[in-house]
Description:
Blueprint: H1 4-7, H2 10-23, E1 30-36, H3 43-53, E2 64-70, E3 75-80, H4 82-85, H5 94-105, H6 109-125, E4 143-144
Parallel strand pairs: 1-2, 1-4
Antiparallel strand pairs: 2-3
Helix pairs in contact: 2-6, 5-6
Amino acid sequence: MSNLEDFLSSEEEQEIVQAITQAERNTSGEIRVHIESTTKLRHYDRALEVFQKLEMNKTEQQNGVLIYIAVEDHKFVIYGDKGIDAVVPDNFWDSTKNIIQECFISGKFKEGIVEGILKAGDELKSHFPWNSNDKDELSNEISKG
Length: 145
Ligand code: CA
Ligand code: CA
């Protein structure tokens, strides 16, 4: 995986967007994916920076989740907002991280992201169930660069 264009095909990107739409049918949580080549910052710090830049900290229940991926660095971060941290155990994202990690190790990038999104939605469901007043507060499109 040398650069962003080779990382995912446009079909694969559409599958990821659909996975977010599907996950958000079960939870009021808002999931986004950001993909870039590399960063000079610590990956956690960069994920936080992207989270704020995408205004993901402005959801009503503070339940936005960013899946941040630095392709060339072979790193990813799952960053959840305060509203989630307040009600879940510390190891809450481990199952989602493990799914993504396992797929990435075997080179299945699209699968890893899709499965991670669906798992995140499933985990969020019990704490932040979907309700009929739900709004799509954050775009489901992939953010890049
Ligand atoms: Ca929503
Ligand atoms: Ca959304």
